[in-house]
Amino acid sequence: MASHDIDALMRQILDAEARMFDAEATILEELAKAMPRHVDDPKWLKAAAAKECCIAELIHALAEKERQRRKDGKGNGQGEDDPPAATPREFSDAAFEQHFAPVLERYRNKKTELGRWRRMFRHRDLARRMAAFVKDCFNQNYARRVYGQVLRNVANAPAAADLPHACNFDQSHIERVFRHPRGGAGAGPNVFDPWNGRWQGKWTSSRDNRPANHADGPNPSEQHHIWDRKRRVGDVWVQPVTQSTESMVDGANIDEKVRQGKADLAINTYDTDCGIAGWVSKRQDGQNFELPHIGFRLSSGVLIWITQKHDAQCNALEEHFSIMFEWVNEDGVYGILGKRFKLTGSGPRELTRAEGAYRGEQHGGVYRHP
Questions:
Q1: How would DSSP label each residue in 180-223?
Q2: Beta bridge partner(s), residue 365
Q3: CA-closest candidate to residue 334, choices 293, 370, 285, 291
Q4: What is the pTM for the complete model shown?
Q5: How far apart are CA 111 and CA 121, in angstroms?
Q6: Alpha carbon 8 to chain centroid distance?
Q7: In angstroms, rounded to a whole number, what is the distance separating the alpha carbons of residues 13 and 171?
Q8: Measured between alpha carbons, how far is 58 from 78 in angstroms, rounded to an integer?
Q9: 37 pLDDT exceeds 60?
Q10: How far apart are CA 358 and CA 368, in angstroms?
Q11: CA 317: distance to chain centroid?
Q12: Percentage of the chain lying above the pLDDT 90 cut
């Protein structure tokens, strides 16, 4: 069998897996209505999540085996369709232990709280309200305004109107994702793979005090992000991430940039306890706070993140949350949109300017491979 035929087969398997998980999510909803006590049983949920994780790891292992087979010259015999060998890691084991292991430890220490967040947003009524909130917040008009802002004066920029937004998804699908115990059908160790590599672009936030008549617009800043290849650390899959407004922060300069306060260190994580999650330690420009995250997979390459600002001791500094709509497409374009909201008796509500919100808009970015 030619390697391109195997590629097609693997895509069919992955598509089938996604449909299977969607069907399971629907079944879980029906079970929840009929037997809420049973479905809310932590042991039952953990067993179901472990099964999903095993399936995801099996598919990952099959894909790795196929890549190795081609690398060993057992592909189509001609080498024309053989992919290049896996790119080396940006960060060595020593760099990971020095810089990212402490971030992972903060995540581990906060897993109980992140699990509480997951259960809270999974609640049937709140999940329904969050789905409507996501559709309303990250609609096409909002996306066009933010994308248009950050792409102003960017050479060969993609058309803002063509970039993703939440209205591309059915509200019922978003609700199912929020109600999933691990953050959506298809959640697993490979969920962050589309973000691998180096990305550079513009970010805008109304907290930036740059004047509205600035030559580059209200406040876009240059961003340099590296998403490294994932690695398994105990029971957690971890993807190291660096963020900087100055330059790419990789294995060669991470010691210097961290010492100078020119880099934020982050991890994306997946495990059977919290599902899709993550952590950002903000240290640039004198900042010193933490951002624990839980994530929701809307589709391959599209995530929703919810986070809350914490101090260096990992105590919550605010009652409200931030929510992000993050995506990467096949054209090598990455985008993110954000809002801040608070939970009320009637569900999520976007913060007003008086409550310190980002003026309801201009919170997001668009990046590409440099």
A1: STTSSTT-STTTTGGG-EEEEEEEE-TTS---TT-TT-SS-EEE
A2: 203, 336
A3: 370
A4: 0.76
A5: 15
A6: 26
A7: 26
A8: 28
A9: no
A10: 24
A11: 22
A12: 57
Residue 299: what residue type?
S
Q: Is 230 helix (H, G, I), strand (E, B) or coil?
A: coil
Quickly state the pLDDT bin for 364 (edges 50, 70, 90): confident
User: What CA–CA distance (Å, rounded) separates 47 from 81?
Assistant: 39
Segment 159-178, tens digit of pLDDT: 988 999 999 999 999 999 99
For residues 243 and 233, the answer to whether their CB atoms sit within 8 Å is: no
The 10 Å Cβ neighbour count of residue 37 is 8
Measure the CA–CA gap between 282 and 264, rounded to whole angstroms.
Answer: 5
pLDDT digits (tens, 9 = 90+) for 56-70: 555 655 655 555 554
Q: How many CB atoms lie within 10 A of CB 345?
A: 5
Residue 68 is encoded by which pair of tokens?
Answer: 């190795």
Rounded-to-integer distance, Cα 276 and Cα 118, Å: 10
Q: Identify the helix (H) or strand (E) that includes residue 268.
A: strand 264-271
> Over 60: is that where the pLDDT of 38 sits?
no
CA angle 190, 191, 197 (to 5 degrees): 80
192-219 burial by CB neighbour count: b if 16+ within 10 A, else e?
bbbbbbbbbbbbbbbeeebeeeeebbbb
Could you tell me the two tokens for 283? 């240290």
Tokens 């035929």 found at = 5
**Which pLDDT does position 4 carry in this prediction?**
53
Helical spans, DSSP H, in the chain: 3-34, 36-39, 42-71, 93-95, 101-109, 111-122, 124-137, 140-151, 171-179, 254-259
Closest by Cα among 241, 360, 250, 249 to 295: 241
Give the count of alpha carbons within 13 A of 13, CB side only: 13
